[in-house]
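May I ask for a protein sequence together with how it folds?
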Amino acid sequence: MDPVNVGFLSILPPIIAIVLALITKEVISSLMIGIFFGTFTYAIASHTGFMGAIQTTFDLMSSKIGDNAMMLIFLSLLGVIVVLTMTSGGSEAYGTWAATKIKNKKQALVATSVLGILIFVDDYFNCLTVGTVMKPLTDEYKVARAKLAYIIDSTAAPVCIIAPISSWAAAVGATLAGAHIFKSDIMAFVSTIPFNLYAILTILMVFTLSATGISYGPMRKFEKMADQGDLGINPEGVSEEAVETNGKVMDLVIPIVALIVFSVLAMLYTGGYFSGKGIGFMAAFGNCNSSASLAWGGFGAIIVAMLLYLPRKIMGFTTFMSCVGDGVKTMVPAILILIMAWTISGVCTILKTGVYIGGLVQASHFPLVFVPVIIFIVAAFLSFSTGTSWGTFGILIPIVVIICKSALVTNPSLMVVTLAATLGGSVFGDHCSPISDTTILSSTGANCPHIDHVSTQLPYALTVAVSCVVGYFVSAATHFSLIATLLSGIVTLYLLMFILSKIWDKKEADEAASETEA
């Protein structure tokens, strides 16, 4: 399929899918409509007719399934691990044990946030592992699944984009190295970290919300429901009925630790660390096949679970194998959404959505000092529309390099700040777009209805995005002072959080007064 230029029409498929999903609260049909709109647009532009549109749709879909087969295998294996640990009683035992160590909801939320920070190797791995481990504990203290999904999502991509040892560092470093202005890939990546406001402020917001209990927007409704016992568990997700067994904490912890250890070792292996060719630790992470590594790690964890459960008669072989089938079934809704999301990303590629938006940026005429704030906004819009951060910075970084190279002599900081803004804006969409894979996986990891997660997270993500815009404006006014940039972003973030929480307090007070009068 040769890409075609369709101008403004190229941005409509993802916009249609996102708007319909938010209105109808039904994701799969919304994505399908967006996909068909895009493929029919492609068929008209390429003169292939009705059957050409149908063929394009299924060619894209099959191609995306093939390209991401290992991730689909990993998701299925993770579903098996989740069901096994629940059936063994390990999850329940862990919740009981953790309740003796963590005494309240705030501590449970902070503990979840810390775990999310610690698992920085890969965002997919983060999304699914944190949810699996922390659900028993957060359920104990009536944490809404929407809040759990928000914490998972906010400590996935935002952490990976500022972690030098991660699958993201490799992708970003390789792309930035093409600018030929940094000594090495890793230096190119590290130089952007201090100015990556979106990642830094998102992590700061997560810990603030967890430690203070502040909330606003739709999230507050879900938290009130959770206080009354309705956690907002996805009825189509993993069954979470209590199972009476002799399970112990180790029946949860050992398989999860095995998953982590095997996955990391597999990443080093696929990255060439054990090849004897002198490939270093960090370089191996950069070169690894993360999807295949996670699938291998998942398989290893299931073998460990079998050796842990069957000899101790925690469950019989027949029960163990039934858990395998049940685990795969629980992941089917998430897999369907992911396939649709990947397909609409392919539609954006053949319609040159990114090229169209990038061209608008490159053709614009505005003072170079304001390039970071403009690029941040464009990257945020593009990544939200397409649901991919890697695709967004892959498109925009070459444009940024062209724009900023002319100013390198007079203002060398411009390139670094603009690249950081590009990465931060790219993560915005990956963090909160309804069609982003990590958003989908965060919903899955928390076993939360997908649209509930999207609608509750979006106000928080927008709060951070607005703070970033202010920070980059101040950065331009102060000749890219790091201290001024960070302080202005942080101050704006806390002001917005305070103001919005007060607005919601007043709104609820007014509603309560109206009900009393009625």
